[in-house]
Specification:
282 residues; eight-stranded antiparallel sheet
């Protein structure tokens, strides 16, 4: 194309992208989706958008939605950044649904100077599949009810003063342990869903990646009580994280991760996590 034709082409495609964002395709809530659209239909816009096309961020109330990780890949993940974080205690919760039997990372938070400052990880160990890291130190938890036919709500808590660390699976507490007494998690933190960071924001491994659904991600800068964690498991919409909140989530998507409506199930209650389950999904 020559100069004027190139300009006209770019203008037309930009107008089409605006229409897609605001009217025609219903992409309004997500600038990330709009930027990916413009990249497909007008590659020159990628020059101006730069890395924002692949790593753009948006903020949204994610209630009733999930992140759907299409496949295991070292390039599919969601970034949740917390710049000025200093934690002497925390609670981190999320809900996940996957058919994977291999190991994978749910949530990985690193600082520039500390790997695995906070990591919730599923390993291949049959007896102790849930791994929890604080400040690079690992502890394992037994979780015999971690079946593949339903979603699971997972929480981890840690208190620096006592060193007490605990995990909760589907609202039920696992055995308490002690680690990193007196430690402080210093930011900035980069938190990644679906990958395990071996550097600050990168160095991912396909064999540690997640595929499936993750939702209801919350983090507090203090330890929730067992009763409050049970309320989080029951999806109490009035209980929001003050560090990361699913109801006011600032996130960036990279790779093949979709935002999809959550699947409504008659098993969204405690009875369905008992053994044997007392109801079936719709």
């Amino acid at each position: 194309m020559q100069g004027q034709d190139l300009f006209a082409y770019g203008w037309v495609q930009t107008e089409l992208a605006w229409w897609a964002k605001n009217d025609g395709l219903g992409y309004g809530p997500s600038d990330c989706q709009w930027l990916r659209y413009t990249r497909v239909f007008h590659p020159l816009l990628a020059v101006f958008a730069g890395d924002d096309v692949g790593h753009c961020s948006t903020v949204a109330d994610m209630d009733g939605q999930v992140f759907l990780f299409a496949s295991r890949s070292a390039t599919n993940y969601v970034t949740l950044e917390q710049e000025d974080t200093s934690l002497i205690g925390f609670t981190a919760c999320l809900r996940a649904f996957t058919e994977l039997t291999e190991e994978y990372s749910y949530l990985s938070c690193n600082s520039p100077t500390q790997d695995n400052n906070l990591l919730i990880y599923y390993s291949k160990s049959k007896e102790s599949p849930l791994e929890f890291y604080v400040g690079g130190e690992e502890t394992r938890f037994r979780a015999t009810s971690h079946s593949l036919d339903r979603s699971h709500h997972i929480c981890g808590t840690w208190d620096s003063i006592t060193g007490v660390v605990q995990m909760f699976l589907n609202g039920k507490p696992l055995v308490r342990k002690v680690m990193k007494k007196g430690y402080t998690i210093q930011g900035p933190l980069k938190c990644i869903l679906g990958q395990e960071q071996d550097s600050f924001g990168g160095s991912f491994d396909l064999n540690q990646s997640f595929a499936g659904e993750i939702d209801n991600v919350h983090m507090w800068d203090y330890v929730l009580t067992s009763a409050e964690i049970h309320q989080a498991f029951m999806n109490n919409k009035h209980l929001h994280g003050n560090v990361i909140s699913w109801r006011d989530l600032w996130y960036g998507i990279t790779g093949d991760v979709l935002v999809e409506p959550a699947q409504q199930s008659s098993c969204d209650n405690q009875a369905c996590y008992e053994s044997p389950p007392r109801c079936d999904a719709n």
